[in-house]
């Protein structure tokens, strides 16, 4: 029996240690293999966590955003691989405090010091990875202390530029996801920020329906612990919206009520157009039925499920063409595929489309809406960015080119008309012919289009050159071919002049709109400044009242303290006087005792002396008496011993 083939596992250290310029392609090749990463390979990502963060810091120092983005894609892939790998990643970060500290430093450099553009792919990947990390129970409080204020600043920076905030959606969604993960199940994190008004401001200014739902969820979660949060967001949202926020229930109808709240908030807004869809099909696969599509000036959001607000967001810049069918279909062909649709879509004919099914009435309203104009403008911006990427020295005042030969002149004239013909084709819903995209081109792994999409070869030029070749082949003589090409060139130049005149008119209209916006901004700034001044005056008066009240309370407290001190002092004086009296009494008693002792000692001494004298006298008498008897006995003995004569 033949031995089954063994899998050649990838050594993440070998991937990460490559030069910075080679890391993006290497990581992309790893993540786009036919076989997914196995558990051992995912574990090696977290095992090499310190080395990955070290290379990320090196990429920041070298201002290499592509390498920085690719390195954090590895972390994101590890966290998203499965529940077990997510827990392992959180555990690895919790056990190694230096990893978390390094992430804090990188986050501050990117966000606060603006080492990378706010909406760059590197910033998006960093925030996406941190939002996953903030969902770990073991690190929730630590991440709240380290990143919560930073995420709040990110949303405030995003909201500072309304136009940029409406063009992009990845950063604000990632920051909102991180904040939701931080406050979910953590009372401590819900109290870290003094005010949540910035969330209400972002919700009111945004045209991203999914981001608005995130803001509503965030305010709902915070208000579950602190109902006063609604007192600080007055003015940011309409009173009716705030009342709907207060009334949100914590049950199975929460998501539907939140969606209804957002629809009421966006009702009447020209930049958020909602169209009910009967069905959404991506490459012959039904994604959803009876849902809604929300068209904004830069992207369309399609709600997929009503259970968890899952959605597909398609930026207009990744659209190749859009076709309106008579049966209520809106057929969208994509140049690049959003991440959620990568598995379904392909470059095969008919498999690169997303179809929206509307009712005939909704389709008629859609035709009259500005959505197609928004798409055309997005495609024109993409072509302009691609042209500038290949021609960085190009300006609007480019000098005319020198005379060319006939064939070259015809080619140049056709190339000059490319932009106008492409715009007309997009407006009519007809897709210009395009070859297959370059196989080496790398697609972004964040949802929707990449922040800086790669340049694709201009297919319209190739198509028109093919038309030129066909005209040359149809001509009978070279002179006839040259005349046809010259005539075509004059036609294109005339069309170019007409287009230039229209552009100047559009420029004048744009300048007028800009001036109106500036005037409106100045008027709004004046009103806001006046309102802020009045609010600050009221706040200062309130603070002064509080200070006066505090001073009164302090004076009363000091007076009470002085009275207590006086009482204590009087009490101490009485005690001292009593102690002095006791001292005098003790001294008197001691003197009396000493005198009594001396008297008793004298009496005892006198008595003892008399007794001693008496005893001495008696002893003397006894001794004298005994000595007399002894003398008599001696005499008697002496006399008895003497011989008788």
Automatic annotation (TrEMBL):
Residues in PH-like domain copies: 269-388
Superkingdom of the organism of origin? Eukaryota
Q: Does the keyword Chaperone apply?
A: no
Write out the coiled-coil annotation as residue ranges.
558-599
Please give the residue ranges the record annotates as the region Disordered: 382-412
Q: Which keywords does the record carry?
A: Coiled coil
Q: What InterPro entries does this protein's entry cite?
A: DUF8079 (IPR058392), PH-like_2_kinetoplastida (IPR057419)
Q: Which Pfam families match?
A: DUF8079 (PF26290), PH_30 (PF25405)
**Protein known as:** PH-like domain-containing protein
């Amino acid at each position: 029996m033949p031995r089954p083939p063994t899998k050649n596992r990838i050594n993440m250290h070998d991937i990460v240690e490559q030069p910075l310029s080679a890391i993006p392609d290497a990581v992309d090749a790893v993540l786009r293999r036919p076989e997914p990463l196995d558990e051992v390979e995912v574990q090696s990502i977290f095992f090499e966590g310190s080395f990955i963060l070290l290379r990320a810091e090196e990429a920041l120092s070298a201002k290499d955003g592509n390498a920085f983005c690719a390195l954090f894609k590895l972390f994101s892939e590890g966290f998203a691989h499965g529940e077990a790998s997510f827990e392992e990643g959180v555990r690895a970060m919790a056990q190694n405090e230096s990893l978390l500290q390094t992430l804090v430093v990188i986050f501050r450099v990117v966000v606060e010091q603006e080492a990378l553009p706010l909406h760059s792919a590197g910033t998006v990947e960093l925030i996406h990875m941190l939002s996953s990390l903030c969902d770990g129970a073991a690190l929730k409080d630590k991440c709240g202390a380290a990143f919560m204020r930073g995420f709040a600043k990110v949303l405030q920076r995003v909201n500072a530029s309304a136009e940029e905030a409406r063009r992009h959606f990845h950063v604000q969604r990632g920051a909102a996801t991180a904040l939701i993960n931080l406050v979910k199940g953590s009372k401590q994190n819900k109290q870290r920020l003094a005010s949540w008004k910035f969330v209400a401001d972002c919700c009111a200014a945004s045209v991203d329906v999914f981001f608005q739902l995130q803001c509503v969820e965030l305010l709902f979660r915070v208000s579950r612990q602190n109902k006063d949060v609604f007192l600080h967001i007055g003015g940011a949202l309409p009173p009716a919206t705030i009342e709907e926020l207060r009334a949100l229930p914590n049950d199975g109808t929460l998501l539907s009520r939140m969606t209804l709240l957002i629809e009421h908030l966006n009702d009447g807004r020209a930049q958020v157009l909602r169209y009910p869809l009967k069905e959404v099909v991506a490459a012959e696969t039904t994604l959803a039925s009876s849902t809604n599509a929300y068209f904004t000036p830069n992207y369309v959001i399609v709600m997929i499920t009503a259970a968890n607000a899952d959605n597909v967001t398609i930026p207009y810049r990744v659209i190749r063409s859009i076709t309106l069918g008579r049966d209520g279909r809106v057929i969208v062909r994509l140049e690049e595929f959003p991440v959620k649709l990568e598995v379904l879509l392909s470059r095969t004919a008919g498999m690169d489309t997303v179809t929206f099914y509307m009712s005939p009435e909704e389709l008629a309203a859609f035709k009259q809406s500005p959505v197609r104009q928004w798409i055309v403008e997005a495609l024109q911006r993409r072509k302009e960015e691609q042209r500038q990427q290949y021609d960085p020295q190009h300006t609007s005042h480019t000098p005319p080119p020198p005379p060319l030969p006939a064939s070259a002149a015809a080619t140049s004239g056709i190339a000059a008309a490319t932009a106008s013909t492409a715009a007309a084709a997009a407006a009519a819903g007809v897709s210009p012919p395009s070859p297959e995209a370059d196989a080496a081109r790398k697609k972004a792994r964040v949802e929707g289009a990449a922040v800086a999409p790669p340049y694709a070869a201009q297919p319209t030029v190739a198509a028109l050159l093919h038309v030129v070749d066909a005209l040359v082949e149809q001509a009978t003589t070279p002179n006839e071919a040259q005349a046809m090409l010259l005539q075509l060139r004059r036609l294109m130049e005339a069309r170019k002049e007409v287009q230039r005149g229209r552009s100047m008119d559009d420029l004048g209209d744009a300048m007028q709109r800009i001036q109106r916006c500036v005037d409106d901004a100045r008027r709004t700034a004046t009103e806001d400044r006046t309102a802020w001044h009045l609010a600050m005056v009221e706040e200062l008066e309130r603070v002064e009242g509080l200070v006066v009240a505090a001073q009164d309370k302090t004076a009363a407290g000091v007076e009470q303290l002085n009275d207590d001190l006086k009482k204590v002092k009087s009490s101490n004086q009485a005690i001292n006087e009593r102690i002095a009296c006791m001292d005098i009494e003790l001294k008197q008693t001691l003197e009396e005792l000493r005198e009594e002792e001396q008297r008793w000692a004298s009496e005892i001494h006198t008595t003892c002396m008399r007794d001693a004298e008496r005893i001495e006298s008696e002893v003397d008498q006894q001794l004298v008496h005994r000595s007399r008897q002894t003398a008599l006995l001696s005499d008697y003995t002496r006399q008895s011993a003497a011989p008788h004569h």
